[in-house]
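Structure ticket #2291
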Amino acid sequence: MEARPGDGARALLRILRDLPGKVRPEEPLAPHTTFRIGGRALALYRPPTEEALVEAVVRARSHGFPWLLLGGGSKLLVPDRGFPGLVLSTAALRAWREEDGTLTVGAGTPLSRVARWGGWKLAGIPGTVGGAVAMNAGTRYGSIGEQILSVRALLPDGRVRTFTPEECRFTYRDSLFRRLRLPVLAVALRPDRGGDLRTLLAERARTQPLDLPSAGCVFRNPPGQSAGWLIDQSGLKGARVGDAVVSERHANFICNLGRARAQDVLELVEFVQDRVVDRFGVWLSLELEVVEA
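Resolution: structure written out below.
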């Protein structure tokens, strides 16, 4: 016999009951992240339209429920105890329109598809466009912010606004949307076909541990330095807590050997930070987003 959802999950079901799409109460979040780590959400909703997502956020806010936007889950560490609120998946928001050399896409569009269209610098980065814009994702060749023409995002008062590239305030692995927690809804981009996508994909396959669950690079590169090199030179490749391990192939990756917990990752992160400070006097800040439960 299937267990009935708890009071909180039932409350969310009531709040969202007339919206299109399905709400999944007490949904495990580990399968929705590339780390394959994390507990359950109070509820997960996959809105089929941008309007439904906006309405769900407005309702969750008005009823005092925390909410979390989930794209590809590629830079996310979900706590072992889960998330005590509404998780909104952008998986269905994949609008795609090409016009006069400009591409306009929904937040849930896979970044890999944009890379094939004309974003070779983004090749091999997992996740979706919305998350990539929020964290200004990129490689050593450049970042998505360099291709942005405009971003449509949701404001805290429920209004939808279009931002110019200057207003997005893109910096290294950061943006206005990440700092203010503004959900990205859609993005307009210009193409950049100045490089070889296949060469970059081959390079990433050769240098990154793509055979194990991970969240990509865990730490930001300090100015003028490589976080991976600092970790490697601190003798930390292979360092392990539980089933969380610093990759032997790329030291800025922490991988899940199968049963890693969020707590394992956090303890390993702290261990790495302390060792690098001891060795080089440099504090490594997180590129990984740790969800607050």
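Closing remark: The chain has three domains: 7-89, 96-189, 208-290.
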